[in-house]
Amino acid sequence: MARLHINPFSIFLLIIAAGLYCERVQAQDPVLPLASGQPEAWLVTYGPGELYWQRFGHNAIWIRDPSRNIDHVFNAGFFDFNQPGFLRRFIEGRMLYFSAAQPALDEFRQYQFDNRSIQARPLRLDLVEYERLLNHLVRQVDPEHRHYLYDYYLDNCSTRIRDAIDVALAGQLSSVIAEQVARQNFRDHTRRSTEAVFWYYLGLETALGLPTDRNISRWQEMFLPAVVDEVIAGFEREGRPVAGDLFTIWNSSLEIPPATPPFTAWRYLLAGLLLTGFFSLMGRLAGEVMAQGSINAYLVIAAQGGLLLTYLWTMTDHQVASPNANLLLLNPLLILGLWPRLRRLAALVLLAGVAFCMVQLLLPGGQYNLDVLAFLAPVNLAVGWWLWRNAPDL
What is the reported pTM? Predict the structure, then answer.
């Protein structure tokens, strides 16, 4: 009689799969508020997720209209990796996003699966305001009008929801909120939303230039879904509140971002010092040839980084990338250090870049790049010292 041989590792995988299956089977659907039987419009706010593009949260408008057989969420945050020229559009800052509507329960289950919080706030609109909102949303998802050029701060999924509510209110929202000063600027919100992801945060801080440090209005601050909810929750027209109480559809176990950006420069300074120490040690152990090879590699990488920042500044639609003080740290001129007779010139570029960045940080209206400076300054100073010391006498 043949015997069935079962690998212990297979048993382990079967147990894990069975546990996941049971968890999915036992998982409850999101809890929805009771329907009134009348047309309803809800502002839906989704919490941040674990993936980098989910760090800023998301929002949408949920329409429940039994007379029209509508129970759909209108969402302006869709994009297609397969669209023609997707990578080129992404690099040039000309990404095409589109709006779509899908059944509410289907959408909520997707965000529940991603462990993202779901909260909804009823919009207290009269019949005329409701019809304006619905007509606007339906037009947005029409195939002829649903695509738009995405801008991270000025025209995104959240500003589209903000604008839709403003259309419903006949411009009353923008006329009031546009005059108010934002509580935080674009950079502050970006920093606090992404600080939990080490390299993503550093990459954004390197690419974002001075425009993100400028003062903005409360209206512009509504590029963030959480701010849209906060503003709508407290907004009144003619003494009547625009929105009702918040209803929690699904609670996430993920931590929410801090209310203000924390001080993170220490961790990037530590990383920069460790990187500098590692390559210094490797150079001592492997000899002068290896040290020179490491120096040359860094010069090439830093110069390429500077070329990328220059490209973002001058050749793309990424307005928030220009001007950018980080070009003082990642300078295309560093490529000159590959030629021995120009090493001292490259060393001066490195040292001057660090000095100028420190000065501009202290000036009113300067660009906040302390984290980038903390990471690159130890490396740049060490490389600059090596170039100066090993430059031939002229």
Answer: 0.88
